[in-house]
Design brief:
This is Malate dehydrogenase. GO terms for molecular function: oxidoreductase activity. It holds the Pfam family Ldh_2. The structure is a single chain. This protein has a seven-stranded mixed beta sheet with strand order 2-3-4-12-5-8-9, with helices on both faces. A two-stranded antiparallel ribbon has the order 1-13. It has ten helices and 13 strands. The protein is globular and about 55 Å long. 39% of the residues lie in helices and 19% in strands. It has two domains: 270 residues, Ribosomal Protein S8, Chain: A, domain 1 (2-Layer Sandwich); 33 residues, no CATH class. By secondary structure, it is of the alpha+beta class.
């Protein structure tokens, strides 16, 4: 069964995932928010952060790292600044509940900031900027989590993978441009997948417990990831840390609970900054599209250029790992 995949209608996948989330103790609102984000990643974004990562959420709901009955709180501290507390739940639920107010603020003031603390790790960060781009907004998102990355070779874990995401709208029916990348040289899930497959990892992306470079994924998981681009990547990780944890009041990565073990909430942070380009130029999507085509003609790789649908329907089918599906089905029986 390992590595086997099957195509399954999206509506059936949605119901299965909702049932599993509810069975593990998530509220109906949380289940909807999480499944919507999971399907968005699976259909339009980073598929490894779709249903494979959904299993981590189910485990954490069951084990108490996620508060399944979370009731996020919101403080409009300034007209264009919203401070959220996820109440130990998931980042997607807080984002869901404040989404309409946040978009209204952005379109009223031209720019707004949402900063949220006390959540589980944010999942696919591209989901948040993708959703805002569909409403005509440009946005940047930053998020942290438990320490998994050293700042340099020989160091100890001080940052999470600390991703940044950027989204911008294009003319319909084109999908938005979404850039979603970690400040680590690779994602933590890459180490886990390589360890499971007993395959070596690239040289220079991780260190072992002694701080030495390693190509052994098992030793790397006990050690730490490294930032991309050396100290420059480390600098960007620090920027993300200050925007996500510093501004929101969430735990620093050094102090955050682990997302795969223990009973304590992660207390991760996320900050989203959104702008309303139509307030300055009503033709922004058309102008952006023209420039992207110009860059593409010069050999520039544009994120999202791989084959990807602009939209899907509930009757469309999605390719899913059979082992992941069986794991989700087992959660439904608990």
């Amino acid at each position: 069964m390992a590595g086997q995949r099957m195509r399954m209608p999206i509506d059936e996948l949605r119901q299965l995932a909702l049932d599993a989330c509810l069975a593990c103790g998530g509220s109906p609102a949380m289940a909807k928010a999480l499944v919507d984000a999971t399907l968005s990643a699976a259909c339009f974004g980073r598929t490894e952060l779709g249903f494979p990562h959904f299993v981590d959420y189910l485990n954490s709901l069951r084990d108490g790292r996620i508060n399944g009955d979370a009731k996020p709180r919101f403080d409009h501290v300034l007209p264009a600044l919203i401070h959220a507390d996820a109440d130990g739940g998931i980042a997607q639920l807080g984002f869901d509940l404040i989404y309409d107010d946040f978009v209204k603020c952005v379109k009223t003031f031209g720019i707004s900031v949402l900063t949220q603390r006390n959540s589980y790790t944010a999942g696919e960060l591209g989901y948040y900027v993708r959703r805002l781009a569909h409403d005509g907004l440009i946005s940047i998102a930053a998020a942290n989590g438990p320490a998994l990355m050293a700042a340099a070779e020989g160091g100890e874990r001080v940052y999470c993978t600390n991703p940044l995401a950027f989204g911008l709208p294009l003319p319909e029916p084109l999908p938005p441009v979404v850039i979603d990348q970690a400040t680590s040289a690779t994602a933590f899930i890459t180490l886990a997948e390589a360890a499971k497959a007993q395959l070596p990892i690239a040289h220079g992306i991780a260190i072992d417990e002694t701080g030495a470079i390693t190509t052994d994924p098992v030793k790397a998981m006990l050690g730490a990831l490294l930032p991309f681009g050396g100290y420059k990547g480390g600098n960007i990780a620090l920027i993300v840390e200050m925007l996500s944890a510093g501004l929101s009041g969430a735990a620093w990565s050094l102090d955050a609970g682990h997302f795969l073990s223990g009973e304590h909430p992660v207390n991760a942070g996320m900050t989203v900054i959104a702008l309303f380009p139509a307030a300055v130029r009503s033709d922004f999507p058309v102008r952006a599209k023209a420039q992207l085509e110009r860059l593409r003609s010069k050999g520039v790789r544009i994120p999202g250029d791989r084959t990807m649908p602009a939209s899907v329907t509930e009757t469309d089918r999605l390719d899913v790992d059979v082992g992941v599906l069986e794991t989700i089905r087992r959660f439904c029986l608990q």
